Amino acid sequence: MIHNLWGIIHITKNDATNLSEGKSNVFKVFIVEDEIVVREGIRNNIHWEQYGFIYAGDASDGELALPMIRRIQPDLIITDIKMPFMDGLELIKLVREELPRTKIVIISGYDDFSYAQQAIRMGVEQYLLKPIVKEKMVEILASLHKKMEAELKQQEYLAKFQREAQEYETFSRRRFFEQIVTGGLSVSEISETAKSMGIDVNAPFYNIVLFSLSSAGNDASAPENYTDSLIAVQDRVTEFIVSHPELILFRLNVTTYAVLVKGGQDDIARFTYDCTENIREFCSVYENDVDWYITCGTPVSRLSAVPACFTEANRILSYRYLCPEEHILSETSIRNILKKDLKSDAGKKEIDQERIRKFLNDGAVEDIDRFIDQLMQSADEEAVSLPFFCRYLAMTVYFAAAEYIDSIGCRADSFWPPELRPKDNASAPEEARQYARQVILRTIELRDRESKKRQRDILVQAIGFIDKHYPDESISLDRVAREVNISPNYFSAMFSQEVGRTFIEYLTNKRISEAKRMLRQTDKRSSEIAFAIGYKDPHYFSFVFKKVAECTPSEYRRGTRS
């Protein structure tokens, strides 16, 4: 072996092992070396692609290298220690801060050993002594490529695991948002919780956008049917919001979503408008198949004021029962509609029974008082105080409720307590209000009881399907929802609420429980068990098993972990 002009000792091509065989990933390498002979020797005399790397660039010192490294973001940096302007140690320190996953190999001479020790403490992977022997370089490249491949695979597994766990994260985000809008968390607690969940809530201004999505004609007494139109809208809205960092999406319940809009004083109004306008556009495409309503609050300048902003938006959204044709709800639009109704209905003193039915169909208990207030406000102010109108309101609510209960398969005469039978003594506004509230509350309770009964039947069917098909790799929440003919969104919320864990948690635990049984009771290899329970990648199965069981499959089989 002879040290030549390139500063690198050659070995023949046949002396090197072809590392590219079976390698699927190619990593970028960058060289920092002030001696041009050494730098060009390394660059020109290593067949980088053969060993799983691509030569991405080089520089003569750290100062020149740093901006190039920031732009290229190499996977591997090979750098000399002693260089002018910015030496290797300073460069390593900066790279470690900005690109912590980048691997670093140092080049040093015998008299640089103290510097090499410092570099090793800073987390470099390997070091090469001058003069550089190609055989040693290839050995280091082989070792690093194997390590980088394994780390990349772990990152891919983690990303896949996190994607699968996204349903749980959505469930957690919902609880977190509920705490925000109800004032259940202090500002410091919000910041800490948001940080732990990877949510950035810091901004000068905030606003709330609320929107409701459901299948057209959806009956809350029954689970929402699986419809391609509703899923398409949900997917497009979610895709838009996720791609805009100033918007944070939460789900309030099965049909209602909230967006926390954040931005500067000059941006918050525009961000709010863009959000509502895009949701409107997506919904309009399917307006014959999807019922949708959108509103927003007034921007606030602090997190502690977000609950008030939410209350305002929620109040406005509740008018969708009185203004079903108005999809974009605001204080102004509601006021104009109610004025128009009063003017056109002057002298009639009638209440639209269909509005009552709509509220009975999908309204919430917490909105009852607000709805009755709105119902009475929609009538002529003078008429509301008349005994005749009060009795009329009570009877209208009663007959709307009786008709609705009959439509969902309940018998009104079997469920109405005596005090809710229609009476002729509701002659004052407050008496009419209280009677209407009791009737509506009872109706919603019956509706929700019927819904729970149907949910349980569907849940039994869904769990039976999961338990039978969990070894199928293609099983998913969407597939199970389609099988039981309800929307994935509804199924996700229902499953989490009734089972106490998300769909993916249930599926994963089902698979891992079966894997544990097979590990202890059969002599099948880990890869065979992986295939048998729905994991086509045995390595990913091992990754998930360790995440769930906190030990490897082999450790569990040996009985070192229970």
Task: List the defining traits of the structure above.
single chain; 562 residues; alpha/beta; Rossmann fold; Alpha-Beta Plaits; five-stranded parallel β-sheet; 23 helices; elongated; disordered N terminus
Would you kindly provide a written description of the structure presented here, covering whatever features stand out?
This protein is α/β, with parallel strands linked by helices. It folds into 4 domains: 8-163, Rossmann fold, CATH 3.40.50.2300; 165-344, Alpha-Beta Plaits; 351-469, no CATH class; 470-562, Homeodomain-like (Arc Repressor Mutant, subunit A), CATH 1.10.10. The chain has 23 helices and 11 strands. Strands 3-2-4-5-6 form a 5-stranded parallel sheet, with helices on both faces. Strands 9-10-8-11 form a 4-stranded antiparallel sheet, sandwiched between helices. Strands 1-7 form a two-stranded parallel ribbon. Helix 8 (228-242) packs antiparallel against helix 9, helix 12 (353-362) packs across helix 15 (387-407) and helix 13 crosses helix 17 (429-469). The longest helix has 41 residues, at 429-469. It is elongated and about 105 Å long. The relative contact order is 0.07. The model is unreliable at 1-23 and 342-348 (pLDDT under 50).
How many DSSP-defined strands? 11
Q: Can you tell me the CATH topology of the largest domain?
A: Alpha-Beta Plaits
What's the CATH C level of the largest domain? Alpha Beta
The CATH architecture of the largest domain comes to 2-Layer Sandwich
- Structural domain count: 4
State the major sheet: 5 strands, parallel
Q: In order across it, which strands form the biggest sheet?
A: 3-2-4-5-6
Distance between the termini: 57 Å
DSSP helix fraction: 55-70%
Output the number of helix runs. 23
- Structure class: alpha/beta
CATH superfamily of the largest domain: EIF_2_alpha
What portion of the residues fall into strands of 2 or more residues? 5-15%
- Tell me the Rg in angstroms: 33 Å
Would you identify the regions where 5 or more consecutive residues have pLDDT less than 50? Answer: 1-23, 342-348
User: Per the principal axes of the C-alpha atoms, what is the gross shape?
Assistant: elongated
Q: What value does the average pLDDT take? A: 81
